[in-house]
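re the bet — no i am not wrong, look at it urself. input seq straight from the record:
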Amino acid sequence: MAQKNAAQLFKAVKLDQALKERLKAAADPETFIKIAQERGYDFTVEELQTELSKLSSEELAAIVNPGVAPRFHIYPR
């Protein structure tokens, strides 16, 4: 299985509603990465955070549950 990174996952999420909903339900980065790995996407927590920092607020909200105020659901609370 070819390794894919977080940026490629974010592109796939735009086309796959089921994947989007599963990722939005992830409570922490490790769960998010586990779901991604099930789909063939392989990256670290650091790589995930780097890619998340590149997204606009709207793009981020489409992928992860934005939670309350500026906190993001994917980051530990």
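see?? The chain has five helices and no strands. told u. also The helical segments are 6-13, 17-24, 29-38, 45-53, 57-63. so pay up
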